[in-house]
């Protein structure tokens, strides 16, 4: 069984973390945005099984198209929102670039979460 949720576009790693380990004000605000988005979509989680993720990143036209700088902040926010017990449960993830939108506020993540199958 899989679940699909739409989330706001995360800040880059350097904006999410200060000195690589402390969560910034922007990072904490993003965490709250993720919790709000999950609650609005009535998504229920707290997974404790191995997971597979499909992540479609919809960037603004002038956005940073680096799919990898966004994933750690996204995973941290999802852990904080109790989507899973620990991001170590993620055994597989695929990140693709989706559509380009006009404004950063329109940027988003379309996340599909499902049990990992070898």
Q: Could you explain the architecture of this structure?
A:
This protein is an alpha+beta fold. It has one domain: Holliday junction resolvase RusA (60s Ribosomal Protein L30, Chain: A). It has three helices and six strands. A four-stranded mixed sheet has the order 1-6-4-5, with helices on one face. Strands 2-3 form a two-stranded antiparallel sheet. A hairpin with a 3-residue loop joins strand 2 and strand 3. Helix 2 packs across helix 3. The chain is globular and about 35 Å long. The two termini are 15 Å apart.
What's the arrangement of secondary structure elements?
Elements: E1 3-8, H1 13-16, E2 17-18, E3 22-23, H2 25-40, E4 51-60, H3 67-80, E5 90-101, E6 108-115
Parallel strand pairs: 4-5
Antiparallel strand pairs: 1-6, 2-3, 4-6
Helix pairs in contact: 2-3
């Amino acid at each position: 069984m899989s679940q699909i949720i739409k989330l706001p576009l995360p800040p880059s790693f350097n904006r999410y973390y200060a000195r690589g380990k402390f969560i910034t004000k922007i990072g904490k605000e993003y965490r709250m945005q993720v919790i709000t988005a999950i609650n609005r979509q009535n998504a229920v989680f707290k997974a404790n099984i191995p997971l597979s993720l499909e992540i479609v990143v919809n960037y603004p036209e002038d956005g940073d198209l680096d799919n990898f700088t966004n994933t750690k902040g996204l995973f941290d926010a999802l852990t904080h929102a109790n989507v899973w017990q620990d991001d170590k449960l993620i055994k597989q993830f695929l990140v693709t670039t989706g559509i380009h939108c006009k404004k950063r506020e329109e940027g988003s993540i379309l996340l599909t979460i499902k049990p990992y199958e070898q």
